[in-house]
């Protein structure tokens, strides 16, 4: 098999996917704007510079590649405008299989990665679309982490809504099988964890593990959008994310699937185990 290309390969899923593929002996090309590789993965993993906005970086990235993992450009309202030409060129150069990461709320043909999802299904012969729910690692590697550490608070517009938070390791494991499996999946996969939790419950689990009270602060959708903007998100993107949180408050993510177990042969990791592994990040007392 030729190389496996990971766009966004230094991100939360990409780093873990690179490690899992390298442990199974596959040659991995980690594509990012910095061009750096992934530490601890050995000689099987190489970094290469790539930018969705620069077609001059496309050629070297896809040469000799058999399968590609696609993470769309950040905070772009219509990523198909950038991803579509890349996929077309990759197919011309002999890339056979594509695995796209979208999100559980984004349906085929919908906004953001929904358009790319529809395009892949129509244009390529071997494909899969991963639609994970919210990541457990959002609490340790993203915006929630800072306020947990500095304020003992989690801010959201989710209200009492519940989410089947998924461990990124499980997303990577499914992605690995989608990329290297003998037969193409040619379907979407809704991915979540083993149990749905509210943010009040999440706060209780984290607080209990570190010996500190963690408060869930409930905001309106508009207030949450403003917080996202302060974090550096574009206004339109911030509004979309805040709207998704409001949808969660109405039950949009309060369900479970069996895809992780079906694909990997084991149950998804639970939130309690994630907290126990991660508690030092939040400053265990």
UniProtKB/TrEMBL annotation:
NmrA-like domain residues: 4-250
SUPFAM superfamilies: NAD(P)-binding Rossmann-fold domains (SSF51735)
Pathway annotation from the record: Alkaloid biosynthesis; ergot alkaloid biosynthesis
Alphabetized Pfam families for the sequence: NmrA (PF05368)
Oxidoreductase recorded as keyword: yes
Molecular function in Gene Ontology: oxidoreductase activity
EC annotation from Swiss-Prot or TrEMBL: 1.7.-.-
UniProt xrefs under InterPro entries: Ergot_Alk_Oxidoreductase, Ergot_alkaloid_biosynthesis, NAD(P)-bd_dom_sf, NmrA-like
UniProt-listed GO biological process terms: alkaloid metabolic process
This protein's record includes keyword Oxidoreductase: yes
Keywords from the named record: Alkaloid metabolism, Oxidoreductase
Top-rank taxon, per record: Bacteria
Family: Belongs to the fgaFS/easG family.
Protein name as it appears in the record: NAD(P)H azoreductase
Gene: azoB_2
């Amino acid at each position: 098999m030729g190389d496996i290309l990971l766009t966004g390969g230094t991100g939360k899923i990409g780093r873990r996917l690179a490690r899992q593929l390298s442990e199974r002996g596959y040659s991995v090309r980690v594509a990012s704007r910095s061009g750096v590789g992934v530490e601890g993965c050995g000689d099987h993993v190489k970094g290469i510079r790539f930018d969705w906005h620069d077609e001059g970086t496309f050629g070297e990235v896809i040469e000799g590649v058999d399968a590609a993992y696609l993470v769309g450009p950040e905070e772009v309202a219509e990523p198909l405008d950038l991803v579509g030409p890349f996929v077309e060129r990759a197919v011309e150069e002999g890339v056979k299989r594509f695995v796209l990461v979208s999100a559980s709320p984004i349906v085929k043909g919908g906004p953001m990665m929904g358009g790319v999802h529809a395009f892949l299904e129509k244009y390529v012969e071997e494909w899969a679309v991963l639609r994970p729910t919210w990541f457990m690692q959002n609490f340790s590697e993203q915006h929630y982490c800072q306020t947990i550490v500095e304020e003992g608070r989690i801010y959201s517009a989710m209200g009492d809504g519940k989410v089947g938070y998924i461990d990124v390791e499980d997303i990577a494991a499914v992605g690995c099988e989608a990329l290297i499996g003998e037969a193409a999946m040619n379907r979407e996969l809704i991915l979540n964890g083993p149990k749905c939790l509210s943010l009040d419950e999440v706060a209780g689990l984290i607080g209990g593990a570190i010996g500190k009270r963690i408060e869930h602060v409930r905001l309106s959708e508009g207030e949450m959008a403003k917080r996202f903007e302060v974090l550096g998100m574009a206004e339109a993107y911030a509004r979309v994310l805040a709207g998704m949180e409001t949808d969660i408050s109405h039950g949009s993510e309060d369900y479970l699937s069996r895809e992780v177990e079906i694909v990997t042969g084991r149950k998804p990791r639970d939130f309690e185990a994630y907290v126990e592994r991660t508690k030092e990040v939040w400053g265990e007392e």
